[in-house]
Amino acid sequence: MRGELTELWRYRELLWSFVIRELRIRYKNSVLGFFWSVLNPLVTVLVMTLVFEYVMGQRVPNYSAYILAAYLPYMFFQLAVLDSAQSVLSQISLLKKIYFPREILPIGSVLANFIHFLLAMSVFFAYLLVIWLLHPGDNPFRATVIYLPFIVLLQLALTLGAALFISALNTFYEDVKYLVSVMLYLLLFLCPIMYFSEQVRYASGIPAEYRGTVYFLYHLNPVAMLMTAYRKVMLDPQNVPLPGKGGLAESLPLDWTLMAICAAVCISVMFAGYAFFNKKKWQFVERP
Amino acid sequence: MTEPAIQVRGLCKEFRLVHTGYASFKGALLWWKKRNTETLKALNDVSLDVMPGECVAVIGRNGAGISTLLSILARVYKPTSGGLKISGRVAPLLELGAGFHPDLTGIENVFFNGVILGLTRKQVSERMESIINFSEIGHYIDAPVRTYSSGMLLRLGFSVAVHVDASVLLVDEALAVGDLEFQRKCMERIRGFQSEGGSILFVSHDMAAVRSAASRAIWLKDGAVQMVGETDQVVSAYEKFSAQ
After folding, report:
1. Chain A contact for B24 (CB, 8 A cutoff)
2. Domain range for residue B186?
3. CB neighbours of A154 closer than 8 A, spacing ≥ 6?
4. Closest chain A residue to B120 measured between Cα atoms?
5. Is pLDDT larger for residue A87 or for residue B21?
6. Which residue range forms the structural domain that includes residue A45?
7. Chain B nearest CA to A93, separation (Å)
8. What is the pLDDT of residues A178-225, one digit of tens each?
9. How many domains are contained in chain A?
């Protein structure tokens, strides 16, 4: 793997060119450009907020901020994985002409989406600032926001690993991308995006003695754990209403044991994905 | 004695062929149906040397393994067995700008292609003017490449390839699309490239072009070297064989 990494480093300029090209192509013929990629999550979150607050009656102050804090990272994961799944196949004619480290294609797709994610996050911070100006209260940024870069890097590692693995697999079996898009859709419900992780911990549908175990198992999913972490480090702890029996659940602190497991999973996925990709990459052009 | 620019020893390449089209889970699930695959030996024990400053033509019928040989030299395929040693950078002449993206402008594509061929972005921008001048694209360089004619694509692709300081140029019968004036210019450039010590591996089915450009020729037949030697002798033998 060390040799592969040196080779990748030697081609870093090409990787960067791929990222620039991907960003350019996306907005080449659209007038509003980057605005579209911010508009999509904003509208989605607006609709979600309206539905949850007014139809389902979940009164949580500043609800849309909690949705955005998890939905933006989820969008990054989803789009990066779906884009990279196609990245090798769509460039197969180029691959058949010339050598360059093949991993540049999926990594480039991930990085292009990562840049979008960072821009969307800065829009999110601007949004928090506006909310604070309109309803001055506590400081909108918590001190724990200093952990944010680590969480972002962990998610980047996880996304890279998943992208490398899936793009290699999808090159041979095109069913993979359909399977992945179904799984990503289900992931939206299995992560604390439209609800709070506390609502899992105190869910009335689960017998009380199992709730701790379910909460633990639920967060073994690294994406779910990352979404919980994003909220905990960026936003104020929030007592959330419990559906069904009523009442409020107290906010839980960030569980560092679970976070450590999540970090280990993210980094292992990255290296395993890269190893798998390297094992397969010479067969891409020869796929039967 | 100088080292050869390209040194190929006992090169073999096998491909697995499947007759049922696309690969999918179906292929993995229906494993007992794998009897449908067969192995194709595209290259069989090929050895050759190309010295610096030499232009060698590779001739042969379609399916003789010529493209496979060039692809292995461009490091697209890994050889099944045998070894190759290339000193310096290889620039495959991407036919009709294979790396071009239709929605990007000429300049953006030149950047991308130059970097793929091993330049840094800074080097590309230093050479941009020279690349544009050589390609004769003029002010269309700011237009999306999808609006280019095939001749323009070829000229731009060729222009990038000769500006990357390669020591080995792989030319795959692409020049035929350019007009006479441009072909002459390319030949001139190729001679200049040769006199600076660059090597060229040249593939063409135009025997007149082979005779005028190459000093030596290799005739591949069914993946094996049939004959190597002076261009005139090899081409004559090949023409005689083809006429039968």
Report:
1. yes
2. 54-80+89-243
3. A222, A226, A262, A263, A266, A267
4. A13
5. A87
6. 2-286
7. 7
8. 999 999 999 999 999 988 888 888 887 888 888 889 999 999 999 999
9. 1
A96 touches chain B (CB under 8 A): yes
Q: According to the model, what pLDDT value does residue B191 have?
A: 83
Largest Cα–Cα distance in chain A?
A: 64
Domains identified in chain B, total number: 1
Contacts of A173 in chain B (CB under 8 A): 23-25, 27-28
A25 touching chain B per CB within 8 A = yes
Contact between B98 and A94 using a beta-carbon 8 Å cutoff: yes
- Listed in sequence order, the DSSP H helices in A173-210 are 175-190, 197-201
The Cα-based distances of A144 to A99, A126, A133, A151, B73 in angstroms read 45, 18, 21, 11, 54
Task: Check residue B189 and give its pLDDT.
Answer: 83
Q: What CATH number has the domain bearing residue B162? A: 3.40.50.300
Chain A nearest-CA distance from B215, in A, is 26
What's the confidence (pLDDT) of residue A83?
93
Q: Is the pLDDT of residue B23 over 70?
A: no
CB contact under 8 A, A97 and B25: no
* Cα B177–Cα B178–Cα B183 angle in degrees, nearest 5: 125
Query: Average of pLDDT values for A245-261?
Result: 84
pLDDT digits (tens, 9 = 90+) for A162-180: 999 999 999 888 889 999 9
B115–chain A Cβ distance below 8 A for any pair: yes
